[in-house]
Amino acid sequence: MTAVTSEPALRTRSASTSPSRLTFARLLSSEWIKLVSLRSTWWSLAVAAVLSIGLSALIAAVTRDLGAGPGGGPSLAAVNVILLPTQFTMLVAGILGAIAITGEYSTGMIRSTLTAQPRRGAVLAAKAIVVSLVLAATTVVIYAIAILVTAPLVTTGVDWSDASQSVIPLAFGVFAMVVYALIGLGFGFVVRNGAGAIAATVGVLFVLPIVFSLFSIAGESWQWLVDAAQYLPSNAGGTLASTGGSDKLPAFLAMVAWAVVPLGLGWTVLRTRDA
């Protein structure tokens, strides 16, 4: 009797400790394979690289031709030459984040994913981590190439001796690109449709700042809305990546909120709706 009752328990313990069990590390590996095996991922990263490096070179050439700024210094800091294209590449990052999950819904792969890993929060976390790592690594490489390409074109190179003029803005630029991608990923989980998620992402990153800026001519009663525009992701990211020692904490907290809230909504939808 003892042998009969202990054998199922033994099998249960053996199954729970089996090396084939889907751990979080293996879930990360799975999400990595899914992301890097998509042609759309590489096309998006290539577009971001071409836009960023090309625009940086163009800005460097233009500012050099314009000559020195006030006081005889360079008309534009070299690190700003590298970071200004982020206002365009942020859309690519957001779109990449959106299609990283909406593609799974369109093909039905999300069902296989959730069958293999029923803990839906773990699926969202793994995908967010992988998307963040890919965007961060790609942005670092893009910035490095852009610095090398623009070095012959700027009158004064990046001042690496001053962190506020070099490392800190570049690090915040990488952080901003990651946040833009997570915003798209969050909308992708919520909307579950590629076109809809991309539209929502572009609306938040690009359209809302334009709409908010229109209220600058509407009088003092609408000034609060103009002031609130600085906390939109594109404006807050620009503030973080700017040079100088201004207080960046409000912009940083705004960016964190812009990453957390869409992902939180996506987690809620993922838990409460069938795939």
TrEMBL record:
Top-rank taxon: Bacteria
An example molecular function term from Gene Ontology annotations: ABC-type transporter activity
The keyword Translocase belongs to this UniProt entry's keyword annotation: no
Coiled-coil parts of chain: none
Transmembrane feature ranges: 42-62, 82-103, 124-148, 168-190, 197-218, 249-270
GO CC terms of this entry: plasma membrane
Protein name, entry field: ABC-2 type transporter domain-containing protein
Source species: Microbacterium lemovicicum
